[in-house]
Amino acid sequence: MRLFVAVTFTESIKTAVYEVEERLRQYCNGGTFTNRENLHLTVVFIGETNRIEEVKQAMNGAVSKIAAEPFLITINGLGKFRRNEGDIYWMGIEKQEVLWKLQKALVKELKEAGFYDIDDREYKPHLTLGRRVRVKNDFHEKEFAKDIPSLKMEVGKISLMKSERVNGKLVYTEIYHTIIHC
C-alpha cells in the first residue's frame, strides 16, 4: 500500500482552495491538477508498505510526545517549485510551531520503527494545486496571488491515508486517524 500521513481539510477549505485552483487553470496551457476530494496537507510521506500497525503506533507516539492541543493553520499565498517538465504550483502554510514539532516527532517515531527511507529534510508544508503546470505568457503570478484569500482551519487530528488508482483515477482514503489532545 502507498501511504502518507496528512492533515485533511474541511469541505469549506476544500471549496475555497479548489476555487483558487480553478482560477489558476485558466492561465495554464497544461498540467495535472489536484482533484478537490484529494486536497490535503502532507505531514509525512511513507511510501509503499503494509506495516500499518507500526505507522499507527508512530502516529500515536508522536501526538503523545508533543502533548499539543488542536491548533490553527493558515493557508495563503502562491508558490511554485520549478521543474523541467512543468512547475508544481502550491499554496503555502504559515509557520505554525505545533505543526513543525508534530512532523519532526512523527519522522523520529517512524525512523525508530524501521522506516529508514522517510525524508527528514526541513519540512516545507504546502498544498499542491497542480503538477507539470505550464502557464501562459500573460500570467502574472504576483497579481494572481494578491486575490488569494487567507484561509484558517483548526487541526484536531492527523490521518493515515492510502493512495491508489481506482478506474484510472487517483483516490486518497483515510484508513486511520489520531486525535490531537493533551
Structural commentary:
The chain is an alpha+beta fold. It has one domain: Alpha-Beta Complex (Cyclic Phosphodiesterase, Chain: A). The protein is 29% helix and 42% strand. It is built from four helices and nine strands. The strands form two sheets. The chain has a five-stranded antiparallel β-sheet. Helix 2 crosses helix 3. GO terms for molecular function: 2',3'-cyclic-nucleotide 3'-phosphodiesterase activity; RNA 2',3'-cyclic 3'-phosphodiesterase activity. Hydrolyzes RNA 2',3'-cyclic phosphodiester to an RNA 2'-phosphomonoester. This is RNA 2',3'-cyclic phosphodiesterase. It is an enzyme of class 3 (hydrolase).
List keywords for this structure.
alpha+beta, Cyclic Phosphodiesterase, Chain: A, 42% strand, single chain, five-stranded antiparallel β-sheet, four-stranded antiparallel β-sheet, 29% helix, 182 residues
Number of helices: 4
Number of domains: 1
Measured distance between first and last alpha carbons: 31 Å
* Order of strands across the main sheet: 2-6-5-4-7
- Helix amount: 25-40%
Level-1 CATH class name: Alpha Beta
- Going by CATH, the architecture would be Alpha-Beta Complex
Give the quaternary arrangement of the chains: single chain
Most strands sheet: 5 strands, antiparallel
Which structural class best describes the helix and strand composition? alpha+beta
CATH topology label: Cyclic Phosphodiesterase, Chain: A
In terms of DSSP E residues, the strand content is: 35-45%
What order do the SSEs take from the amino end to the carboxyl end, as H and E?
A: EHEEHEEHEHEEE
Q: Which stretches are poorly predicted, pLDDT < 50 over at least 5 residues?
A: none
Give me the CATH superfamily. Answer: Cyclic phosphodiesterase
Q: Got a strand count?
A: 9
Average pLDDT figure: 94
Q: Write down the overall geometry.
A: globular
